[in-house]
C-alpha cells in the first residue's frame, strides 16, 4: 500500500545530497579513504571508544557478541520486546536467547527480572555468556542498573543501540555503557547511510578482532591467509560517505525529532485514554519513534485501521519475541508488560522530513477516529 504520510521515510535533503556527491568525487570511489573519514566523523561522538563501520546494525550485533566470547550453545539474555535482529544475531552464533520482559517506564529490559534470570542460570550450571540490552525505539533502558548487575556477575554487556544514536542516559550516549555497543544507519534510522552500522568499544582489541572477522578473516600476510571463518561485513565506501556528511547534522535532526514528539504529546497525551511514556529524569531519548499506548479493548485496532484508511502509515509496537513462532520455544522470564505493549501500542509518522501540516493531519485524523 502507498501511504500519503509515511512512518519514517529517510531524511536525505538536497544539502546532504550535494555534499555526498562532492565527497564521492573527492574520494574517487576508493573505499579506504571514505571509510577512514567515516570513522573520524563517528569517532567524534565517542572519544573514549574505538569505532568500526560495518554493513548493518545486525552485523555489528553479530560481531559484538562473537568478540565478547559468545559461543555455540551459550545462553544470551536479551529483551523479548525487541526487533528480530537482536535475536537473529544470537542465533547466528548458534547460541540461545533467553527473553527478559520489560519494565513499565522505558519499555526496556527489567533489571529485576534480569537478575532473576542470571541467578536461575547460575543455579542450573548455565551462567549466561552475555547480556544483550536493547534501547528500544531510541529510548535508553535503565542501563546503569543493568551495567551494575552485569559487572557484579562478571557477564559481558553488549548494547543494541541500533535505533538510539544520539539518545542519552545521565549525559552519556546509549551504547557507551557496555563492553560493546552497536548502532544502525538503516534507511529509517535517525542517521542513514542507506544501510550500514557502527560497532564501538573501549577495548581496541575487540574492535581489531571484529574488523578482522568483518573482512573475511583475512590475516595480514603478502598472500591470502585465513585462520578462521569470517564475514563480508565491511561498510561500503558509498555508505561511509553518506554517513560522514550526515553525522555533523545530528543535532538538527535531534531537535526536529523532539519538536515533533512534543507536539504529539501536547495534543494527544490524555486524550480518550492515550498514554505516553513517563520517563525517569536520567533518560533522554532521541525520539526516533513517537509511540503511545491506548486504553480499551479495540482502541488500537480502531486507530491502526483508521489512520491507514486515511493514507497515514502507523505501526503497532513489537509483538514480543517469546510469542513468535520462530522463537517461542526459547526460555523467557515474563511479567506481562511486553504483551501489554503489543496489545495497546501504536507508533506515528515522525520523520525529520515530516511537514507541520502533515503532522496536524495525523493528529486530527487520530482524534476523529477515537
Ligand atoms: C534497526 C534495528 C536493528 C537492525 O539494524 P539493521 O541496520 O537494520 O541491521 C536491530 N535492533 C534494533 C532494536 C533496531 O531498531
Descriptive report:
Helix 1 crosses helix 8 and helix 2 packs parallel to helix 8. The strands form three sheets. Strands 1-9-8-5-4-2-3-13 form an eight-stranded mixed β-sheet, with helices on both faces. A three-stranded antiparallel β-sheet has the order 7-6-10, with no helix packed on it. It has a three-stranded antiparallel β-sheet with strand order 11-14-12. The protein is an alpha/beta fold. The longest helix is centred in the C-terminal third of the chain and has 19 residues. 47% of the residues are buried. Pyridoxal-5'-phosphate binds next to helix 3 and helix 4.
Q: Characteristics of this structure?
A:
single chain, 12 helices, 370 residues, 14% strand, binds pyridoxal-5'-phosphate, alpha/beta, 39% helix, 8-stranded mixed beta sheet, 3-stranded antiparallel beta sheet
Mean pLDDT: 97
Helix content: 25-40%
Number of DSSP-assigned strands: 14
Low-confidence stretches: none
**What small-molecule ligands were found?**
pyridoxal-5'-phosphate
Radius of gyration in whole Å, from Cα? 21 Å
Give the N-terminus to C-terminus distance in angstroms: 23 Å
Task: Tell me briefly what this model is.
By secondary structure, the chain is an alpha/beta fold. 39% of the residues lie in helices and 14% in strands.
Question: Mind sketching the topology for me?
Answer:
Elements: H1 14-27, H2 31-43, E1 50-54, H3 57-67, E2 75-79, H4 84-92, E3 96-100, H5 111-123, E4 130-134, H6 143-152, E5 157-160, E6 168-169, E7 172-173, E8 180-184, E9 197-201, H7 204-214, H8 237-246, H9 250-268, E10 283-284, E11 290-293, H10 299-309, E12 315-316, E13 332-333, H11 337-344, E14 345-348, H12 356-369
Parallel strand pairs: 2-3, 2-4, 3-13, 4-5, 5-8
Antiparallel strand pairs: 1-9, 6-7, 6-10, 8-9, 11-14, 12-14
Helix pairs in contact: 1-8, 2-8, 3-4, 3-7, 10-12
The structure holds pyridoxal-5'-phosphate.
Amino acid at each position: 500500500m502507498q501511504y500519503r504520510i509515511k512512518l519514517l521515510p529517510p531524511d536525505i535533503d538536497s544539502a546532504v545530497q550535494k555534499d555526498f556527491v562532492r565527497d564521492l568525487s573527492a574520494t574517487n570511489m576508493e573505499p579506504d579513504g571514505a571509510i577512514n573519514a567515516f570513522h573520524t566523523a563517528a569517532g567524534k561522538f565517542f572519544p573514549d571508544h574505538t569505532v568500526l563501520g560495518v554493513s548493518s546494525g545486525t552485523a555489528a550485533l553479530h560481531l559484538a557478541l562473537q568478540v565478547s566470547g559468545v559461543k555455540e550453545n551459550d545462553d544470551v539474555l536479551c529483551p523479548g520486546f525487541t526487533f528480530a535482529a537482536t535475536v537473529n544475531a544470537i542465533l547466528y552464533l548458534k547460541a540461545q536467547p533467553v527473553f527478559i520482559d520489560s519494565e513499565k517506564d522505558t519499555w526496556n529490559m527489567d533489571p529485576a527480572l534480569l537478575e532473576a534470570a542470571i541467578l536461575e542460570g547460575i543455579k542450573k550450571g548455565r551462567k549466561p555468556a552475555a547480556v544483550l540490552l536493547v534501547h528500544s525505539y531510541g529510548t535508553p533502558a535503565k542501563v546503569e542498573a543493568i551495567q551494575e548487575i552485569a559487572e557484579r556477575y562478571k557477564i559481558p554487556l553488549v548494547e543494541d543501540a541500533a535505533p538510539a544514536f544520539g539518545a542519552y542516559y545521565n549525559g552519556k550516549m546509549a551504547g557507551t555503557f557496555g563492553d560493546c555497543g552497536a548502532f544502525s544507519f538503516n534507511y529509517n534510522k535517525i542517521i542513514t547511510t542507506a544501510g550500514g552500522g557502527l560497532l564501538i568499544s573501549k577495548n581496541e582489541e575487540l574492535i581489531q578482532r571484529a574488523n578482522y572477522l568483518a573482512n573475511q578473516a583475512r590475516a595480514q600476510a603478502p598472500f591470502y591467509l585465513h585462520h578462521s571463518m569470517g564475514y563480508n561485513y565491511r561498510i561500503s565506501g558509498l555508505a561511509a560517505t553518506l554517513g560522514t556528511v550526515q553525522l555533523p547534522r545530528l543535532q538538527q535532526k535531534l531537535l526536529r525529532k523532539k519538536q515533533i514528539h512534543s507536539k504529539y504529546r501536547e495534543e494527544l497525551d490524555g486524550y480518550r485514554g492515550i498514554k505516553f511514556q513517563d520517563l525517569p529524569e536520567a533518560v533522554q531519548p532521541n525520539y526516533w519513534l513517537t509511540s503511545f499506548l491506548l486504553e480499551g479493548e479495540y482502541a488500537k485496532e480502531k486507530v491502526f485501521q483508521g489512520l491507514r484508511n486515511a493514507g497515514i502509515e502507523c505501526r503497532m509496537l513489537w509483538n514480543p519475541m517469546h510469542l513468535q513462532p520462530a522463537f517461542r520455544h526459547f526460555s523467557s522470564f515474563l511479567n506481562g508488560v511486553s504483551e501489554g505493549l503489543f496489545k495497546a501500542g501504536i507508533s506515528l509518522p515522525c520523520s525529520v522530513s515530516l511537514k507541520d501540516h502533515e503532522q496536524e493531519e495525523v493528529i486530527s485524523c487520530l482524534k476523529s477516529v477515537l
